[in-house]
Specification:
Elements lengths: L3 E6 L14 H13 L4 E3 L3 E7 L6 E7 L7 H11 L6 E7 L7 E5 L7 H10 L5 E6 L9 H5 L5 H24 L1 H8 L12
Length: 201
């Protein structure tokens, strides 16, 4: 049983995409890299990779930002998992999620991909959906805006003021997931359900 985790931040390569909502997973990995105090290096698996420990005595992690486009994230993820000997249940995908509000972070194991092509490609490459996901809420597109157009745009002005807090929360969620387990991390980061509110969809 490995004690190493592969944390993958999803996004598209290139400066023109760096501020997009679709790249929020890679922004979270930059936050985690800052906490480790190290930089990414290019790996032969077509990814930017950083090896280290999260926190003093914390779990050993491989942080990875695929250098492929989002829709073909699976190849680099599978290659890295094989290279480092990391099973699927120790893979964590950090990604944008339109089905939850901006400024919200949720965690889950397995399940559907919700139309997220990056996740779909990872599931195919790993031959399983049973890997962990840290879902970073970006909200739904306004009006009739196409979903692809929405996620490939930068965060709005008001969102950008809140973005550092969202990235901090998402990085905390990754640390909690690895340190405390999925259930405890969900209890910490998922909004409490009140009897007066309608159930979450």
């Amino acid at each position: 049983m490995t004690d190493t985790w592969l944390i993958v931040g999803l996004g598209n390569p290139g400066a023109q995409y760096q501020g997009n909502r679709h790249n929020v997973g890679q922004m979270v990995l930059d936050e985690l890299a800052g906490r480790i105090g190290a930089g990414f290096k290019t790996h032969k698996a077509r990814a930017q990779v950083l090896e280290g420990r999260l926190g003093i005595g914390g779990p050993r992690v491989v942080l990875a930002k695929p250098m492929s486009y989002m829709n073909v994230s699976g190849g680099p993820v599978s290659s890295l998992a094989n290279f480092f000997g990391i099973p699927a249940d120790h893979v964590v995908a950090v990604h944008d999620e339109i089905d939850i509000p901006f400024n919200t972070v949720k965690l889950k194991l397995g399940g559907g991909e919700g139309g997220h092509n990056g996740l779909r490609d990872i599931s195919k490459a790993l031959s399983t959906k049973d890997y962990l996901r840290v879902r970073v809420g970006v909200g739904r597109p306004p009006g009739r805006m196409d979903t692809a157009d929405y996620v490939l745009r930068d965060f709005g002005t008001a969102e950008q003021k809140e973005l550092p807090f969202l990235l901090d929360d998402a990085a905390d969620a990754v640390e909690s997931l690895l340190r405390d387990g999925l259930t405890a991390a969900q209890q910490r980061f998922h909004p409490a359900k009140s009897g007066s509110n309608p159930p979450e969809s």
